[in-house]
Amino acid sequence: MRRLLSTLALTACVMTALPTTLAHAQGFVLFSGVKRENQLPFRFDFGGQRNGIDRYILRVPAEKMKLAVAQFAVSYPDYYKGTFDPEKIEVRVRGKKVPLSEVKWNREGGLIEIFPEEPVPAGSRVELVFSNVQNPAFGGTYYFRCQVLFTGDVPLLRSLGTWILTIN
């Protein structure tokens, strides 16, 4: 009986710790509600620690870039209490920095709009680099949504996917 109780206790501990450990791994989230094909890859350069300064590398795979893009819009939830530095936001295409005409941060609306000087070509691997980010004081999981305005398309933002960021 003692051996059975020990085994059950150990199993319960492992089963409780495993989802927490996996959920905090960068770029890997269990049961997010976002279909796998709609999840976008990302990286924290400084670990995604709460209340710390960080750099977010938000990636858009080439296969998502079906047409040339004139605008990127990144929306985030109202409960995300971090701050951004619009002067430190850049777009990289195939590793090279792209000149931007404007970056707008709507704090109240939870939206960052990024306007490249020239449309980003279709089929490009893109990185949206947010430097000098002040992470929220409280950890959590935050869904950052990527929308774009394709050139020559109806002036309507189209969703490319979601980055699921976990701040420890």
Write a structural description.
This protein has 168 residues and is mainly β. It has one helix and ten strands, in the order αββββββββββ. It has one helix spanning 2-23, and strands at residues 42-44, 53-60, 69-75, 89-93, 96-98, 100-106, 111-116, 126-134, 140-150, 158-167. It has a five-stranded antiparallel beta sheet, with no helix packed on it. A five-stranded antiparallel beta sheet has the order 6-7-3-9-10, with no helix packed on it. The longest helix is centred in the N-terminal third of the chain and has 22 residues, at 2-23.
Main sheet makeup: 5 strands, antiparallel
Calculate Rg over CA atoms: 19 Å
- Mean pLDDT, to the nearest integer, reads 86
Q: Which ranges are low-confidence, i.e. pLDDT below 50, for 5 or more consecutive residues? A: 4-29
Question: How many DSSP H or I helices?
Answer: 1
Strand residue content: 35-45%
Order of helices and strands: HEEEEEEEEEE
- Based on helices, strands and strand pairing, what is the structural class? mainly beta
